[in-house]
Amino acid sequence: MGKRRNVLLIVVDQWRGDTLKMLGHPLIDTPNVDALAAEGVTFARHYTQAVPCGPGRASLLTGLYMMNHRAVQNTIPLDARHTNIAHELRHAGYDPALVGYTTTTPDPRRVPAEDPGFRVLGDVMDGWRQVGHWGLKMEHYFAWVAAQGYAMPDNPWDIWLPEGQAAELPGATGAPSRIPAHLSDTVWFTERGLDYLRSAAGKNWMLHLGYWRPHPPFAAPAPYHDMYDPAACPPPVRAASAAAEAEQHPLLRFYLDTVERRSFFHNGRGLGRDMDEAEVRQMRATYYGLISEIDAQLGRVIAWLKESGQWDDTLVIFTCDHGEQLGDHHLLGKMGYFDQSFHIPMIIRDPDASADATRGSIVQAFTETVDMMPTVLDWLDRPVPRACDGRSLLPFVREGAAPPDWRREVHYEFDFRNVFYSKPEEVLGLSMDDCALAVVQDERHKYVHFAGLEPLFFDLEADPGQFTNLAKDPAHAPAMLDMAGRMLDWRLRHAERTLTGYAASPDGLQSRS
């Protein structure tokens, strides 16, 4: 029998890319993630291709830009014709396992309209064996909590309210959630992952180990709720007022006027834009506590892999679906065009000796979430589908250098059409298909192109916070034109190409990669 080749893909939810100690965060305490980075490679400029969860996870798991997979929002179906990392590994004899979720709405041409998967934000992508899915509405997790003897409230979601707190929680709080840490959702996902790993011993396996946190509601169980002093948390990067912030662009104004606290603090009241700095710092302290809780549970998973003798057979990838504004630009959540929503973590730990020279290194080249799938396939010596838009990151991991033709910018997209919980079309006076933006960003500039609204252009060297739109400044017109041309080049180069490598000829079918 040859050397075992296992893949552990850890996918957290809503973890900002700058919230890593090795990238300079002044406060975060994550010893297990830090240790993973010390044994692997951290990608400092790693971006998701789309937000929110559904589009971001579609790009992560299919290797396709959003302009190609077209699952453009939560609730928008993913075309069944697209392959994904699970399907590709099945060709290699793996039975890919899923703990967590993929937020995938099924293809209505293949699935009947009455299917319950059409009544939620998203179900599970095809190809995965579900070994730890908490149900369409978390019912499996809530049932597990009740089975442990915990008295569930009439509204199960109230487990994230502080003990003794009325249902009208106003916003950020330093109090712990009433659910004890040993019954948290983070523990539940970890237990499901460990159950699977114990059952998979002795065979090659791939596990997508997903976590819901640090996704809201921003409420952490003890002792994580008070691990961080709010006064020590970094202040928000934002304009002097929400009104001043809103002057930048109509889309930004829409979100400032509509994003409510209740989506982030269970039963909270008011708009996110009205949070003062003290509230933002408290929110960040709780958010960091949720991150530290995940870190502690990852320590259990890593310890088991080492104890079972599988650590040196396992490729470990730690990443995320998207980021979180966390009060920056007076926003909560993930939307729009700011880096806080799109910049995400990526750490790869390759167990092979060929990666020894790069352990602990930090890569500054631009990398993207579409690069995950080709990286795994490369590590397993499997072909990468021609349709895949990403490229393997193994050259960085094993050679410590970028290929000579590596990308010099990053691209991401956002679709803001109406969904059942957000209705911008009428406010902005746009049709559904005009509600789209695309971003091209390099070390110096950032260009945001809208299908139906005015563009944005930022000088990142002079304005790293991205407060001043230079799109109408004649002095910056040449630079903006260059970035617009690069975006067009990108779209032409990556237009859907599943079959464009094939061609008929007098000698029959020919194929080019």
Question: How many strands in all?
Answer: 15
Spell the H/E element sequence: EHEEHHHEEHHEHHHEHEEHHEHEEEHEE
Spans of at least 5 consecutive residues whose pLDDT stays below 50 are none
Number of domains: 1
Span between termini:
32 Å
CATH evolutionary superfamily: Alkaline Phosphatase, subunit A
Radius of gyration: 22 Å
* CATH class type: Alpha Beta
- Please describe the biggest sheet, giving its number of strands, its sense, and whether it closes into a barrel: 8 strands, mixed
Largest sheet strand order = 5-4-6-1-7-8-2-9
Number of helices: 14
Q: Approximately how much helix is present in the residues?
A: 25-40%
Estimated structural class: alpha/beta
GO molecular function: hydrolase activity
Protein name: Phosphoric/sulfuric ester hydrolase PehA
Pfam family, one: Sulfatase
Domain Sulfatase N-terminal: 5-381
Overall description:
The protein has 513 residues and is an alpha/beta fold. It has one domain: 3-Layer(aba) Sandwich (Alkaline Phosphatase, subunit A). Helices cover 27% and strands 14% of the residues. The chain is built from 14 helices and 15 strands. It has helices spanning 31-39, 53-62, 66-69, 85-90, 139-147, 185-200, 242-246, 250-258, 277-307, 339-342, 372-379, 394-399, 424-428, 477-494; strands at 6-12, 41-47, 50-51, 97-99, 129-132, 206-210, 314-320, 346-349, 361-368, 410-415, 436-441, 445-450, 456-459, 502-503, 510-511. The strands form three sheets. Strands 5-4-6-1-7-8-2-9 form an eight-stranded mixed beta sheet, with helices on both faces. Helix 6 (185-200) runs parallel beside helix 9.
